[in-house]
Design a protein that fits this description.
The structure is a homodimer of 215-residue chains. Chain A is an all-alpha fold and 215 residues long. In chain A, 69% of the residues lie in helices and 0% in strands. Chain A has 11 helices and no strands. The N terminus of chain A is likely disordered. Chains A and B meet through α7, α8, α9 and α11 of A and α7, α8, α9 and α11 of B. The structure holds a DNA duplex (18 and 18 nucleotides).
DNA sequence: GTCTATATTTCGATAGAC
DNA sequence: GTCTATCGAAATATAGAC
């Protein structure tokens, strides 16, 4: 058996990752020091370097392991044949809201933008492994609905931007106003989510453009 | 007259501000060093401290002076009685796209979020002086159109988020993919802007909810 | 695997000559 | 108003004991 001091090394690594991810998305990459991280974890600075060879490698691990599994529910929603096309969009949007407002991965976009000039590979990984796959899933749901006649044929790229943009922006605004006393009045999260989903569904099920009636 | 060495001090200050703003929005607050700034400006580090007493004061000047005047065109659009309600929204959205994609102020939101825990007053100033006033202008245009019968009565808060969210998110994505070879294919700016504006107008002029016909 | 101690660099900021 | 030179603090990272 292992020594007494060898207390769950996997948990230790996971704890470092979790605390580092939260610190990175809150204070930025350059704004997060290894000393602060060590203090938050409750260990010494040098101990972090036993689990991760450098600050940059720790950061890359936070990002790439951070979005692992974030797409699983969305993929299940996409494949769920029991949902109507409209309810599939509603359920998917609610899931995107949940991930982006309750997990750090939703606040990673500005973080990636900050480090992109110095660590270009992490920008590529995040875009290909997280953003692009989200786009493909949602665009696929929309195009399926259009093909089945459930939705009006509207531009999927514009729709995609109108689905993700307000959510990411809301997560950023929440971060920006984190210490405002009137934070919830400035950005009523539940109200915005419901209204946003309703308006997207309204768009998708609105009558086709009038000039197409002569086809 | 002034000395030869006294070469346009106002231009020097403005040059520091412009270069610092670009550096801050690109690399973040903590990721921008005074030495890098001085090198970019072409002066010595100590010379910056003649114009700004500290890095923090320089940053605050970048933010507060950065959004000065960004609202003037939008206010003129709001007051332009020669525009139809629909064209006012179209013109206003095009202006918001222009400001957010071609000036640094559009990339300030993530930057403010980064420094908000340490410099809360700048978050307040940015929200009150830039974001809230943008919201008020656009929401006013929408409510005017609803009152005149040009637009369907839809939730202005949800609409506001669907107007600004995709634009700010697009600016962030452009930053994140700045060195991607396929950047313009991933985010076709002109296409997204046109599609986004069209879809917002489509929402605003769509027929009212069917269940309201029995009123 | 975690610690103490330290090497080395870079940071923001200042002093003082010109 | 800009410069050279430098300070003290804080950064990343390493060495080596246990």
């Amino acid at each position: 058996m292992s020594d007494l001091k060898d207390t769950q090394p996997l948990d230790r690594r996971a704890k470092i990752l979790a605390i580092a991810t939260e610190a990175f998305v809150t204070n930025g990459y350059a704004g997060t020091s290894m000393a602060d991280l060590a203090s938050s974890v409750g260990i010494q600075k040098a101990s972090i370097y036993h689990h991760f060879p450098s600050k940059q490698s720790l950061f890359i691990a936070c990002v790439t392991e951070g979005y692992e599994g974030a797409l699983q529910k969305l993929e299940a929603i996409r494949a769920d044949a029991s949902l109507s096309d409209a309810n599939r969009i509603r359920t998917a949007m609610a899931e995107i809201y949940r991930v982006n407002l309750t997990t750090p991965v939703g606040r990673m976009a500005p973080l990636i933008a900050e480090v992109a000039p110095n660590i270009p590979e992490v920008a590529r990984a995040f875009h290909g492994g997280f953003i692009a796959r989200h786009y493909a899933l949602v665009t696929g749901m929309i195009e399926d609905g259009i093909a089945r006649g459930s939705f009006t044929a509207l531009d999927p790229i514009g729709l995609r931007q109108m689905i993700f943009g307000p959510i990411i922006f809301l997560a950023m605004e929440r971060e920006m106003t984190a210490d405002f006393a009137d934070r919830d009045q400035l950005n009523p999260v539940d109200h915005i989510r419901q209204s946003h989903i309703d308006l997207i569904l309204r768009l998708l099920t609105s009558p086709p453009p009038s000039h197409s009636t002569h086809n």
